Amino acid sequence: MTSKHSEFDSLVPGRPLDRPFSRRDFITTAAGVGFALATQPIMAQTAIHTDSAGLLAGRVKLASPLGEVEAYQARPAGQEHLPVILVVSEIFGVHEYIADICRRLAKLGYLAIAPELFARQGDPRQIESVPEILEKITARTPDAEVLSDLDACAAWAFQNGGDPARLGITGFCYGGRITWLYCAYRSSLKAGVAWYGRLEGEVTPQTPRHPLDEVAELKAPVLGLYGGEDSGIPLASVERMKKALASAAAPAARASQIILYDQAPHAFHADYRPSYRKAAAEDGWRRMLAWFQQHGL
Which residues pair with 193 in a beta bridge? Predict the structure, then answer.
C-alpha cells in the first residue's frame, strides 16, 4: 500500500447542491438520498431516522485529483474546528442509512462526510441485485481510487469547519475493510472503527492487499466490530487478525482491538435490514464513540 498522499492544500472547497436532505428524500429516488434498491423492502419498524435540525447537512461536490467527487456531509451549524469522521459505505453507496449515520455523528459534534466511492463505475443505489453490484461496481473499484477520494473528502472537511488535527474514519461491510486499509495508509489519522469489514480476500489489480496484509503498516489504532454468526467473514479470519495485531511491532496494531458479538450476523448495525441486532448495534455504537474520544476525537 503506497504511503504517498494527495496534498490537502491543493484542493478547493466543494459547493453544496441546490438543497440539503429533506424528509421527502426518505423514499428511494435517483436524485435524493433514499435507500438503495437492492436493500428493499426496508424494515420501517426499526429503521432509525435522524433529522437535520441544528445541522448543515446535504450533498456536496468536491475536487479530487481523480475528478469530481460527490459526498454527503453533516455538521453542527455555526461551529468550527470540529473533529472529522470519514464514513465509508457498504456496497450500496451513500444511501439513506449512511446519510443518517452522518447526521447521528453531527448531532454529537462531529463533521461527518461520506463519499460516493463507486460513482466512476455506476450508481449501486439504482441496481436491484447484490451480485450485479458486486460484479459491475465493487469489483471494478480500485482501492487506490478509494483512498484518494477519502483524502479529498478530508481536505474538503478541513476547509469547511473541520480540525486537521482530529481525523477519524468508520465504515460498514465494504467500508469496514476500507477503514482498516485507510488506517494503514493515512499517517494523520487518530483512529478507525471497522464494522464487520472483510479481513482477507482475493488479490486482484483493484484489491492488491487486504487488512491482514497491512497489520505491520497500521498508523492509527482500529476497533473492529464483528459478528460471531457472520457467514461471510469466518471466525478463523477474525482470529488470525487478532493474533496478527497482538504480535505486530507497530504500536497502532498492538493498540487495536476486536470485539466479537457471538450471536450477531453480518450487518448487525444496519437498522433498516433483517440482520439488525439492537443490543449489538447499540453496544458497538457506544464503543465506537468511546474509542474516538479515547484517541482524541
Answer: 170, 223
pLDDT in tens, 238-257: 999 999 999 999 999 999 99
Q: Which of 95, 210, 266, 269 is catalytic?
A: 266
Residues 6+ apart with CB under 8 A from 213: none
The secondary element (H helix, E strand) that includes residue 102 is helix 96-107
Q: Cis omega before residue 83 (within 30°)?
A: no
| 100, 151, 213, 230: the active-site residue | 230
Cell of 102: 452522518
Domains of the chain (ranges; CATH) run 8-294 (3.40.50.1820)
Residue type, 41: P
Give the pLDDT confidence of 228-242 residue by residue, as tens digits: 999 999 999 999 999
| DSSP 8-state assignment for residue 200 | -
Q: How confident is the model at residue 124 (pLDDT cuts 50, 70, 90)?
A: confident
Contact 174, 239 (CB under 8 A): no
pLDDT at position 30: 31
Catalytic site includes residue 230: yes
Q: Is 153 a catalytic residue?
A: no
- 266 a catalytic residue: yes
Distances (CA, A) of 224 to 108, 134, 168: 21, 23, 14
Distance (Å, rounded) from C-alpha 269 to C-alpha 70?
A: 25
Catalytic residue among 102, 153, 173, 183: 173
CA neighbor of 228 nearest in space, from 240, 239, 212: 239
- Beta-strand ranges (E) seen in 216-287 are 222-227, 257-261
